[in-house]
Amino acid sequence: MNKTINGFSKRSKSEKISWLGENFTDSPEAFTQELSSWQHADAAVQRVIDGFTENSIANFALPYSVAPNFLINGKTYAIPMVIEESSVVAAASSAAKFWQERGGFHAEVLGTVKLGQVHFRWQGEAARLRQIFPTLKPVLLDCTGDLTENMDKRGGGILDIELIDFEAVEPEYYQLRVSFETCDSMGANFVNSVLERFADTLEDFFTNHPVLGEEERDVEVIMSILSNYTPDCMVRAWVECPIASFSELARSQGMDADTLADRFAMAVRIAEIDPYRATTHNKGIYNGIDAVVMATGNDFRAIEACGHAYASRDGQYRSLSTCRASNGMFRFELKIPLALGTVGGLTALHPLAKRSLELLGHPSAETLMCITAAVGLAQNFGAVRSLITTGIQHGHMKMHLTNILNHLGATEAEAAAAQVHFQNHPVSFSAARAFLKKGSAGAST
Ligand code: MEV
Fold first, then answer.
1. CB under 8 Å to 111, separation ≥6 — which residues?
2. Which residues of the chain have pLDDT under 70?
3. What pLDDT, on a 0 to 100 scale, did the predictor assign at position 443?
4. What does pTM read for this prediction?
5. Under CATH, to which class is 64-110+234-390 assigned?
6. CA terminus-to-terminus distance, the chain
7. Ligand 1 atom index nearest CA of 284
């Protein structure tokens, strides 16, 4: 059967669903019914959601959760988180509660600079280009007035344009590296529009230059695009307390506070030393970060790409967090680039992204950077605390039990009985299956 199609995007949503059901599923009717049910009840809202991408045929549900009791820079937040992994929100909430009693999370923005690049070829001498650049720069700055007007009014705009010479690694390759302040917006469209204007102006400038030689006129722009690597759009979040305040937690794990703090710091150092561990360690950080980034309608791929590039900045992939346990004090810190926005883009369009920002008190982009970094640090704290004490499966499987029971088709009564039973028994898929097979009464002892 020929399963290709022309003009798929032009078909109505129900035509798309029917065509897919008929051509790619075993049960077209069930497929059509299921997909048709995953639509928003309000047609106007559904139209907005469908407008986010091409060929949208349904809404894919993920839980929208909240982690309360987050004390960040002296203010208490209930944090919206969109994530499917069972234990993440529970771990964030538990870490938030732990630190609430120890001064909470502290965070500061270290910079908000965004970057973009115009990559181009030029056949003349590098020295000659450097000589011409000071006359090119004001022309570039002058050509974008209509694009930067609004951003300028908000206190942002173009900060600088640098000429970067890559001749040594790729003949004729140069770059305009442009820095921007985009205020409360993530600024991708603004940055890309400015860069494309720069590209046109650059070509124009050289083609029509009155005194350049023939080969010096030949500029070829390869591409113009923002860079998702923004090491100067950075936030630092930290927690600190006397090591003695770990006593109760440590005692519950059969160790003393110094041992717990020392094991914690060692676990973080391992992630600084070993990229295999660092990847998992940082993944734990992004469990928290991505969940907030998603809930607030920001771009989690951009945030992750940037963070992982930053984690490799000295040539080796390392932990994004650091920990010090010395002189009776424990300090755990996360320094992370976060190019976030609280206006424009999906933040203004997605109905729940708007609600998330409302829950967070309509934060500025800088405040959202602080909040998000604090959640990443909390998540990291929760994971490492589990790893160096009970092990991760203890809490994880408890949270995962609901998924297992759903998968096994447990009734509500069976699920309730299982939740009681597994409070004192190790959770596993086979243990849950055995429990349901035996019948909850028989297995509850
Ligand atoms: C699981 O999603 C995240 C952890 O693996 C993070 C870590 O190991 O630090 C628990």
1. 232, 233, 234
2. 1, 440-445
3. 45
4. 0.92
5. alpha beta
6. 56
7. 6
